[in-house]
Amino acid sequence: MNPISIQVNGRGFSRHAEPRMHLGDFLRDELRLTGTHLGCEHGVCGACTVLVNGQPTRSCITFAVACEGQEVTTIEGYDDDAVMQRLRPAFTRHHALQCGFCTPGMLTTARDIVLRLPHADEARVRLELSGNLCRCTGYQGIVDAILDVLQQQRDTPDAQVEKLRQTLSLPRTIALGPVPTPSQAQPPARSPAKPPTADPVAAAEMAEVDPVAMAKAKAKGNAIEVHFDVPYPADQVWEFMGDLPAVASCLPGATIDSHEGERVKGTIAIKFGPMSAAFAGAARLERDDAARRAVLRGAGQDSLSKSRTQGDITYRLEALTAGNTRVHVDMIYALQGPLAQFSRSGLVKDFVRRMVADFGRQITRRLGGQTVASNEPQPTVSVAGMMWSVLWNRIRGWFGKPPQL
């Protein structure tokens, strides 16, 4: 147990905490400040957002001991805040809250938007809010409330708000706690962080697939094993699947921008209901010709939501007969960012199985000599149609009927 001295909402506190206790748990359990809500506890939903030295911070993934000597502001500490005095009535006026679970984190993010982006339009406000999830409102009321406050400040400037904006423009840092002595147990050192880049393809090239992250993803259930059959000899199928551009043409939503040896850059576009994403990234293929086994290791980033993904796709060929081949596909994936909420859905796994089955049919079509015409549109991931098919197959399964692929 380590003693922590911390400033919270203008008051000093000193408490003991386990080294692995997160700030959100410390605030709720030790200081009884239960206005900070814990949702996903993975830094995705934004409900736990608080200020640390004036910066919005996910308290569910920030260690309490790292905040030694820092200044933390929770939803309980905004009573005299000039921005919050405008935001709270605006949220009420525009019906920007229902159950209220996301509201503390949403207000904290909204306050940051008002101070940091005085000329933000609706598109920018929506982008800034993409890290805060709300299951109730549809976001329109929240967006309208923030735009309302921004307009108020333009029409009738509040001197206190302007002063806060000037303070915000100063360099800000979050200093970690004191350096521990060598006698204290330390986790294994990590490699230095790579510099950020605005280019998602370059970011994906820099990112190596982390085996530890992959192991955690598999433990969490982010793994899928599927197979499909192709009515052609194994040698012919293996040769075809070594041609990355040809394989990409069979995968809905995939496009290849460049190809050099066993490395490839490209984009996979998906549309999940009203949400769309385009993961631009890079991958490399490792082949074992003797075993007819290969691993495609890749990473990508969606430029809009800033969600990142990495994963391994292992496939191996099994000769069923002289003219029939079974392709076994094992997928392990990790997803970070706003889209991570969809990564553990059973329907998503069913959807992926369906997409792989369609991928197998496209390979059969290409091996049969049916080339893609120049005027033929690139196939896309039609989640709506596939999802209806997935649901129908589940219903058929409830009544003992075999699923249709």
TrEMBL record:
The keyword Iron-sulfur applies. Keywords: 2Fe-2S, Iron, Iron-sulfur, Metal-binding, Oxidoreductase. The keyword Zinc does not apply. InterPro entries: 2Fe-2S-bd, 2Fe-2S-bd_dom_sf, 2Fe-2S_ferredoxin-like_sf, 2Fe-2S_ferredoxin-type, 2Fe2S_fd_BS, Beta-grasp_dom_sf, CO_DH_gsu, Diverse_Oxidoreductases. It comes from the Bacteria. Residues 174-198 are annotated as: Disordered. Residues 189-198 have a biased composition (Pro residues). Residues 2-78 form the 2Fe-2S ferredoxin-type domain. Gene3D superfamilies: 3.10.20.30, 3.30.530.20, [2Fe-2S]-binding domain. Pfam families: COXG, Fer2, Fer2_2. Its EC number is 1.17.5.2. One of its GO terms (molecular function) is caffeine oxidase activity. PANTHER family: OXIDOREDUCTASE WITH IRON-SULFUR SUBUNIT, XANTHINE DEHYDROGENASE IRON-SULFUR-BINDING SUBUNIT XDHC-RELATED. This is Caffeine dehydrogenase subunit gamma. The gene is cdhC2.
